[in-house]
Specification:
41% of the residues lie in helices and 23% in strands. By secondary structure, the chain is of the alpha/beta class.
Length: 265
């Protein structure tokens, strides 16, 4: 390995690492788009118990967005909060979120019960008994900044709510669609679940791109090895030629010496 080929080896390693990483990136895109397709169909799937999709203490499920689920428990009205800076049908207002204590676990799940124009409209649930809520699953929102009045928050930040309420909290919240019995006062308007993001592109196409990048990496290794071998064989051929040339030069000298001896003789 000459310094020149060592330099090219460094370039090769960098290229191979780049191509492999690009391949994994495209594979990740392919998987994400596969998830997108599943999310797109989520609202049309049958309603299932929330416990089948969301496990207490685990991250939000990858294919859980917009899935319709049901959960049974009772509202914890004293911990109801308003989420500021929300709009519905072009009007500014607040989201009303109330934790539901899930039967059999004692853990809470955040229910988005609806939208109000003013805090005075945010009446607590009309029942303290058990209710069954059907809603659309959503992951928690990013943390908010700034100061908010008592009883109000900037986002549905589940980590912040867990610190505020204590106990256990599911890593998801529900856009309430209906509840049995109905515990929502007329002044609170239901918030329609957001439409799922449509999938773009084809999953198989991105998987093919990933394979293409890995083939580029393999081809770069092959080309380097081929060029290195050719260079080695060329150098070896020159060395053999030089050796043969040296042997050919010695033969005439020996003959000349022998002729000189014969002449003297």
């Amino acid at each position: 390995m000459t310094p020149r080929w060592l330099g090219w080896l460094v370039v090769l390693v960098a290229l191979v690492v780049l191509f492999v990483e690009l391949g994994f990136w495209q594979l990740g895109v392919a998987r994400d788009k596969g998830v997108d397709k599943s999310v797109l169909a989520a609202p049309t799937k049958p309603v299932v118990p929330m416990k089948d999709l969301v496990k207490l203490g685990e991250p939000f499920p990858a294919k859980g967005s917009s899935r319709r689920v049901s959960v049974h428990g009772h509202y914890d009205a004293k911990h109801q909060l308003l989420v500021t800076g929300r709009r519905l049908h072009g009007k500014a207002g607040y989201w009303v979120i109330t934790p539901l204590v899930v039967d059999g676990t004692g853990a809470r799940v955040v229910i988005l019960r609806g939208f109000v124009r003013t805090p005075k409209q945010a009446t607590p649930p009309t029942t303290t008994g058990d209710v069954t809520v059907v809603g659309s699953l959503a992951p928690g929102e990013s943390p908010s900044t700034g100061h908010h009045p008592p009883g109000q928050i900037g986002t549905v930040d589940l980590a912040s709510l867990l610190n505020r309420w204590g106990g256990s909290l599911y890593n998801a919240f529900l856009f309430g669609i209906r509840e049995t019995p109905n515990a929502t006062a007329p002044g609170i308007t239901r918030v329609p679940p957001p439409p799922p993001n449509p999938a773009g592109g084809l999953r198989l196409q991105n998987a093919a791109y990933a394979l293409q990048w890995w083939l580029f990496a393999a081809f770069a290794i092959y080309i380097y090895g081929r060029m290195l071998r050719d260079d080695y064989e060329a150098r070896a051929g020159l060395s053999d030629a030089d050796a043969a040339g040296d042997n050919g030069d010695e033969t005439p000298h020996d003959s000349d010496a022998a002729s000189t001896k014969d002449t003297h003789a």
